[in-house]
Design a protein that fits this description.
Helix content is 36%, strand content 20%. The chain has a six-stranded parallel beta sheet. It is globular, with a radius of gyration of 15 Å. Helix 4 links the parallel strand 4 and strand 5 (143-152). It has one domain: Isochorismatase-like (Rossmann fold). The chain is built from six helices and six strands. This is Cysteine hydrolase.
Length: 188
């Protein structure tokens, strides 16, 4: 479903657009496009004085899986947001250690304190951090909007699966421009 409305109290959540992930090769669509679209959203939310939450990931949740352990050390700037986002001191930062941004963080409390009823999501990876956060937001009763041109994945197949099959079940989808136009109409 395309975007029908933007709630008066909507927050932008930008997931894992950080230096350590932004430099990964072969993401689909290219990270430069995702970052550029995310910046369009950030600028619009700032213009309308709406909450912006930046999320970074600094580790992994405990537990076994079938993937071989990765033996690499994270560079010192791994968790730093990409500079294009130009995070301002008053904008909220959530550091997560799981796929979804709500688990083990203050994200829900931050949004509830501000009366937020809708979240717009962008970031990386479409099928992991963004989708997990969207699922959690939906389960918590937030209206969910997904900026489909402001997210990337490591796999074209998983990216497409999220966009075509999962996201329409969780909320509304649209481009950054369509979301910004809806914001402008709401706050005109």
């Amino acid at each position: 479903m395309s975007i029908t409305t933007i709630d008066p109290k909507t927050a932008l959540i930008v997931v894992d657009l950080q230096k350590g992930i932004a430099n990964l090769p072969n993401v689909v669509p290219p990270m430069s496009q995702t970052v550029a679209s995310a910046v369009v959203l950030v600028d619009a939310f700032r213009r309308h004085d709406l909450p912006i939450v930046f999320v970074n990931v600094a580790g992994a949740a405990p537990g076994r899986n079938e993937q071989p352990p990765r033996a690499f050390s994270m560079p010192d700037d791994w968790t730093e947001l990409v500079p294009e986002l130009d995070r301002q001191p008053h904008e909220h930062l959530v550091t997560k250690r799981t796929w979804g941004a709500f688990t083990g963080t203050d994200l829900e409390a931050y949004l509830r304190e501000r009366g937020v009823t809708q979240v717009v999501l962008s970031g990386v990876a479409t099928s992991i951090g963004v989708e997990s956060t969207a699922r959690q937001a939906h389960e918590l009763g937030f209206n969910v909007t997904l900026a489909i041109d402001a997210m990337s994945d490591l796999s074209a197949q998983t990216h497409e699966n999220s966009l075509l099959r999962t996201f329409p079940l969780l909320g509304e989808t649209g481009t950054a421009q369509a979301i910004c136009a809806a914001l402008d109409r709401r706050h005109a």
